[in-house]
Amino acid sequence: MTVPSGLYAITPDALVDDDARLMTAVAAALRGGASLIQYRDKRSDAARRHANAAALNALCREAGALLVINDDTALAAAVGAAGVHLGASDGSLAAARAQLGPDAVIGATCGNSLERARAAVAAGASYVAFGRFFASKTKPDAPPAELATLAAAHAALDAPICAIGGLTPDNLGPVARSGATLIAAIDGVFGAADIEAAARAYVAAIGGQTARIP
Ligand SMILES: Cc1ncc(COP(=O)(O)OP(=O)(O)O)c(N)n1
Ligand SMILES: Cc1nc(C(=O)O)sc1CCOP(=O)(O)O
Ligand SMILES: [Mg+2]
């Protein structure tokens, strides 16, 4: 499966306790043009996570977008999601690739490390994620990442690059011009009063950027 470019909207903690609001909010992000959705839910029990993941997967398919499940390869497989996003302590990328198959979208958290990204691609990651680039209300303790790392990854790796952490339509320009083709955001999309309009603003801002580095 090709990894899409554009807005990668990740569900916030604030919505996972309210299934109806979660669906309405994700539907709005999809109308606003999000191409990838990540279901990130560290609070719900297994049954609720399964039900939400299945419903979000159907919503994404209807919209022509893809659903990635955070942390949980087995849940991605169980609901037939497009793939999974794994951090350093979330299990093996190679095992996820073996379980989900060659077409799955498998993302890897790489912080500020090109070496981690190289290893992730070698282990089967479809995209590599660097962050955080700006102060993040969602994850205030995430260590900072540099634009130079994005540029180095863009030059060295044959894999789509995702950027995350405090990104907004107003500050994403340098990040996109350094090689990130996927802009991930939680609060800037789902914390907005008008989620659809917020997503549209990201998509418009991303559309105006092209990487400067060949
Ligand atoms: C696109 C994207 N990038 C990074 C992360 C962070 O993953 P991780 O380090 O495993 O932390 P948690 O999100 O699980 O708290 C992500 N989820 N998505
Ligand atoms: C989940 C996550 N991971 C990060 C990393 O740096 O790996 S930053 C982050 C939170 C992103 O949310 P917001 O767009 O609200 O800042
Ligand atoms: Mg994780």
Order of helices and strands: EHHEHEHEHEHEHEHEHH
Rg over CA atoms: 16 Å
* CATH fold naming: TIM Barrel
CATH superfamily, please? Answer: Aldolase class I
Low-confidence stretches: none
Counting DSSP H or I runs of 4 or more residues, the number of helices is 10
Family: Belongs to the thiamine-phosphate synthase family.
Pathway: Cofactor biosynthesis; thiamine diphosphate biosynthesis; thiamine phosphate from 4-amino-2-methyl-5-diphosphomethylpyrimidine and 4-methyl-5-(2-phosphoethyl)-thiazole: step 1/1
Binding site for Mg(2+): 71, 90
Enzyme class: transferase
Features:
alpha/beta, binds the ligand Cc1ncc(COP(=O)(O)OP(=O)(O)O)c(N)n1, 8-stranded parallel barrel, TIM Barrel, binds the ligand Cc1nc(C(=O)O)sc1CCOP(=O)(O)O, 214 residues
Helix-strand blueprint:
Elements: E1 6-10, H1 13-16, H2 19-31, E2 36-39, H3 46-63, E3 66-70, H4 73-79, E4 83-86, H5 93-100, E5 105-109, H6 114-122, E6 127-131, H7 147-156, E7 161-164, H8 173-177, E8 182-185, H9 187-190, H10 195-207
Helix pairs in contact: 2-3, 2-10, 3-4
The protein binds the ligand Cc1ncc(COP(=O)(O)OP(=O)(O)O)c(N)n1, the ligand Cc1nc(C(=O)O)sc1CCOP(=O)(O)O and magnesium ion.
